[in-house]
Queue: 2 jobs
Job 1
Amino acid sequence: MAEIPYVPQKFKDAIEEANELSNLGKREEALSILDQLAEECPDWWAVHYNRGNVLNELERWQEALQSLDRALEIATTPPWGDVLPPVIISWIHNNRGSAYSKGLRFALAKEAFEAALAVYPDDDVSRDNLEVLKEIDDMLLEGQPDLKDGKLWVH
């Protein structure tokens, strides 16, 4: 069995700090930490995953996608690809789908949510997000333009 690559504790602590800041609504501060980590520890999938999530929360979807794509690339190739559980890969795909959908790129969002389920079929969040996309698609077919009522955004 492959070993999990070594990540210094200071980088793990910095990820934790960035997550705490983001949860407090201090996303720009969190992003600053994650940007620095991306320079210091560029081959750790978690840096790019968390950075993509913060960018998604900041509504900077194209940048979020770039970070999440990088996280997916790292997470699916050795050494990380040999040790990460499928649920992690599913989360990355799901958050890519979220960024695509918030950027109103629904077909690509659907592909990302389906990829999440292909990797980890028990991913209820991605399954729910596919249902939301179906509702949006149905609304568009019915000609109802109000998509931002707060009920139909994916997670």
Note: The mean pLDDT is 91.
Job 2
Amino acid sequence: MTNKLKLAGLILAAGLTSMSAQALANNASQSITVFHDPSCGCCVGWINHMKEAGFSIKAIQTPHMGVVKDKLGVPQGLDSCHTAVVDNTGQLIEGHVPASAVNKMIADSSVEGVAVPGMPVNSPGMGPMDGNLVTVDLNGQPFSKD
């Protein structure tokens, strides 16, 4: 019985590793362009969070974030310090949205974008997540809670 348990454990570990590798591979095929102010350190924290989740990130520094947000159509009241676009879908990511919410958005092509308005301390790049971060869609309706 011990050998069977060891074998089952090895098979389970291999399966989980394969699933994790597949998730990273899926995200790696998702390229995201992020626009942020060059002096904003929390934006870099969010970029690192997304890279750790397996996304390919192209960061563009600009002191003209208002112009970027206007051109991309970020709704007033949902703005944050950085704005990103999923390159192959055009979906919008505003602010410190967790990678899990981005994955959920990408899986549903009817969702035009998601946002974490402001700069909440319990969001990626700002501080530890506590399970109470609410991501909204571009209409301001709750989309996910992480």
Note: The chain is about 40% helix and 25% strand.
